[in-house]
Amino acid sequence: MKTITYIASNEEGNLFFQNNFTYIASNTKDGLDINYAFQDKGTVKESISLPIYVFSNGLSGLEAISRYLVETVGLRYCQIADLLNRDDRTIWDAYNGAKQKPHENLHNSTSCVHVPLQIFNNRTLSILESLTVYLKEEANLRYCQISSLLNKDARTIWTAYHRAIKKRKNATFN
Q1: How many distinct helices (H) and strands (E) make up the chain?
Q2: What is the pLDDT of residues 29-85, one digit of tens each?
Q3: What span, in angstroms and rounded, lies between the C-alpha atoms of 91 and 134?
Q4: What is the longest distance spanned by two Cα atoms in the chain?
Q5: Assigned CATH class of 123-174
Q6: CA 119, CA 124: separation in Å to the nearest integer?
Q7: Are the CB atoms for 97 and 63 separated by under 8 Å?
Q8: CA 63, CA 126: separation in Å to the nearest integer?
Q9: Torsions phi, psi for 53 (to 5 deg)
C-alpha cells in the first residue's frame, strides 16, 4: 500500500470556506511531487511532475497519464481535464481504455527523470511529441536514451520530435 501525505493550509479561518488554499501531496515511493493551489470554484493551478516510467507501459500517452493521475494521485476526471486542457469525457475514455488493457507495472527505480504535467497543455502537439520535445530540449537526452526510457523505437522518437518541430515552425508563420 502506498503512503501519501496530505498537507492543507489556508490564510485565514476555515479551510473549506476560503477561496484560496494550498494542497500539497507527496509520495516518496513513486517520486510524486504535487503542489495544487485551488482558486475560485475549484480551479486547479498545478505543478505536478510525472515519473518517466508512466509512459513505458504499453499504453498511449493520454491513457498512461490518466491512469496514473486517477489511480496513484487520486484526481477526478474533471481535474485531470483542466490540467491537460482537454474535455473530461476524453479523460474518462482514455482511462477506461487503459483499464481494459493488461496492467504492466514498470517502476524503473534507476531512472529519476520526471516530466512536468504542464508540457501536455499544448493541444497542437501530441502527448508523445510534447514528451519527446521536453526530453530532447530540456533534459538534453539523445534519441536512443529517450527511446529506452519510453520503451519505443529510436526512429519513432526521431519522427515524433521532427513532427513537433515542424508543427511549431508552422505555428509561428500562421
Answers
A1: 6, 6
A2: 444 445 444 444 344 444 789 999 999 888 999 999 999 999 999 999 999 999 999
A3: 22
A4: 56
A5: mainly alpha
A6: 11
A7: yes
A8: 13
A9: -65, -15
All cell numbers assigned to 151: 520503451
Nearest to 96 by CA among 60, 122, 72, 120: 60
Confidence of residue 105 (pLDDT cuts 50, 70, 90): low
> In the beta sheet, which residues pair with residue 38?
21, 44
**pTM value?**
0.71
Residue carrying the nine cell digits 481535474: 79
Where does the pLDDT of residue 102 fall: very low under 50, low under 70, confident under 90, or very high at 90 and above?
confident
Lowest mean pLDDT segment, chosen from 50-54, 58-62, 97-101, 105-109? 105-109
Buried b / exposed e over 134-169, threshold 16 CB at 10 Å, is: bbbeeeebebebbbbbbebeeeebbebbebbeebee
Domain boundaries, the chain: 1-121, 123-174
Contacts of residue 13, Cβ cutoff 8 Å, sequence gap at least 6: none
